[in-house]
């Protein structure tokens, strides 16, 4: 057993001595549904078939949010705009091929999905489905991930309300019939008398 754990440590970088979790990156794929409410795409894991978000190990030469976006393409065929700042992170236990498990901390970035490709690398290995925010939060098993999903849903609802307020147009004021200036348009003074002319001096 110790030899298997040592091998797992070499493969994953995890060690029992420091007990620090392995780092992973993920995206939370979202889009606006037909009613404008936020929807979340979840995919199934390859081994346990539970509902998860696209995730994987950090990639050399890529920033964490770029690596997370790459996982979204490889695992779900999703293309869109990924946020550079993480929404947060959650923990879970990942099962290794040796059947040992390692604790992982997953940094999650928001992905506003623009489209899903017709083909992608892991298309035949996973299933994907769009959920409402409450359904997605209930479908995942990790409490930390469920909390991130609910938080994203709350932010989405807040943004919708703000957008709705901006969309309300204030009707323009009706033009006034009265001239804005005290200067009469007819050349007469407000009293009705014509303006007096200063006699010109003879040369």
From TrEMBL:
GO molecular function terms noted in the UniProt entry: metal ion binding; pyrophosphatase activity
Positions with biased composition (Pro residues): 192-203
Domain (Nudix hydrolase) ranges: 20-153
Disordered: annotated segments: 160-203
UniProt xrefs under CDD domains: NUDIX_DIPP2_like_Nudt4
PANTHER family: DIPHOSPHOINOSITOL POLYPHOSPHATE PHOSPHOHYDROLASE (PTHR12629), DIPHOSPHOINOSITOL-POLYPHOSPHATE DIPHOSPHATASE (PTHR12629:SF0)
Descriptive protein name: NUDIX hydrolase
């Amino acid at each position: 057993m110790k030899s298997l754990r040592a091998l797992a440590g070499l493969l994953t970088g995890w060690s029992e001595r420091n007990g620090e979790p392995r780092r992973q990156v993920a995206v939370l794929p979202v889009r606006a549904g037909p009613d404008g409410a936020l929807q979340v795409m979840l995919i199934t894991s390859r081994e346990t078939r539970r509902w998860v978000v696209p995730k994987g190990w950090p990639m050399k030469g890529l920033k964490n949010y770029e690596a997370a976006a790459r996982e979204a393409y490889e695992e779900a065929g999703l293309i869109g705009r990924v946020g550079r700042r993480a929404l947060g992170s959650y923990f879970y236990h990942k099962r290794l091929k040796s059947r040992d498990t390692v604790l992982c901390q997953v940094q999650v970035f928001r992905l506003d999905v623009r489209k899903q490709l017709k083909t992608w690398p892991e298309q035949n290995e996973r299933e994907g489905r769009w959920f409402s925010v409450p359904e997605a939060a209930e479908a995942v098993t990790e409490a930390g991930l469920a909390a991130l999903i609910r938080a994203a849903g709350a932010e989405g609802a807040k943004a919708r309300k703000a957008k709705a307020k901006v969309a309300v147009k204030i009707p323009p004021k009706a033009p006034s019939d009265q001239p804005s200036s005290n200067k009469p348009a007819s050349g007469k003074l407000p009293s009705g008398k014509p303006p007096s002319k200063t006699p010109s001096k003879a040369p």
